[in-house]
Amino acid sequence: MSQTMPRHRLMTYAVLIRLCTMTTMLLLLLVWFLNAHRLTCSWVLLVHLIITCVLLMAGMEHALLHRRAMVSAYMRREAPVLRTLYGRGFLLVQQVLLSALLAFALMAAALQFVPRQWSLLVADLLLMTLLLPWLSRSAGGLVRGDYRFAMARHWGMWISVVLIWVEYMLALLYAPPAAYLGMRWQEVVLYGYSAPDVGCEPIRTFANVIATAQALSLWAAQNYARAMTDPTQATVLWVGLLILVLFPFVVAYAFSRALVGVMARPWEMWTSMVEDFRQPGGRSEPASNDESAPFDERRS
Predict the structure, then answer these.
(1) Which of 147, 141, 130, 135 shows the shortest CA–CA distance to 296?
(2) How many whole angstroms separate alpha carbon 196 and alpha carbon 215?
């Protein structure tokens, strides 16, 4: 009993720490939603920088995992293409640009969230809090010990993406926030949507573009049968349907990536990445025993 009680407390505290850590991202989005109209560009850029850094953590962890698979199974370490396409500089620049774009998309989408969508994000956060420990334990017999926590975060992220995207799509189709039936797309663009109230002018322009695209996607879903018979409306209809499918996926991916980003630890693989280029070609060495599992479990 004396040996199991500390383990029980450790697991309890790990769940609470994980919940509090991921909740910070949701609270940051909520603060942004409530104060976007009064924030100056400096504060907006600070919020964007924080979200970008969190997204970058998850993105680099996944990129380094993918690179590890390339080194271990497909390519020789001395291959020039490995240094070019999977080198530190290229991976970092690629993930910084992607994270910055995802952060802008998530911030713009958050301005249009309704209570139902905020409730969905809270439910997803609670699910991820309980799901990640189970995925970590399940990965113990499937993944090499030093990568199982990173893989658990990766799997959990994609489960979250699917759940948020499916619910988002169902809500847009069956409980749309606006009715555009019978309207032309020109009317929707001119006065058929509510422009986000943002204090920073460049961000307001970007948010208006996102809001317009979302309005056109709803118009396309509601006017499919009528607009398909009009050649001048059909092109915009297909663009709207594409946005209807892709943009909710981007938002779901950005939020899910941010949730796991607060727990990601890409620097652990960054050091081994440097060592790879110093070793001779061939397959990577077997992974060490998972002696740090209790520490990783506290931090995962």
Answers:
(1) 147
(2) 12
Quick one: which of 168, 171, 247 has its CA closest to 212?
Answer: 247
Tokens 């009680």 found at: 5
Element (H, E) at 153: helix 148-174
Question: Locate tokens 């640009």: which residue?
Answer: 97
- Nearest CA among 40, 37, 24 for reference residue 263: 24
User: pLDDT tens digit string along 163-205?
Assistant: 999 988 888 777 777 778 778 888 888 876 777 888 888 888 8
Which amino acid, 294?
P
pLDDT digit string (tens) for 246-267? 999 999 999 999 999 988 877 7
239's CB contacts (< 8 A; 6+ apart) are: 216, 220
Would you say 266 and 57 are in contact if contact means Cβ atoms under 8 Å apart?
yes
Cα–Cα dist 164/124, whole Å: 7
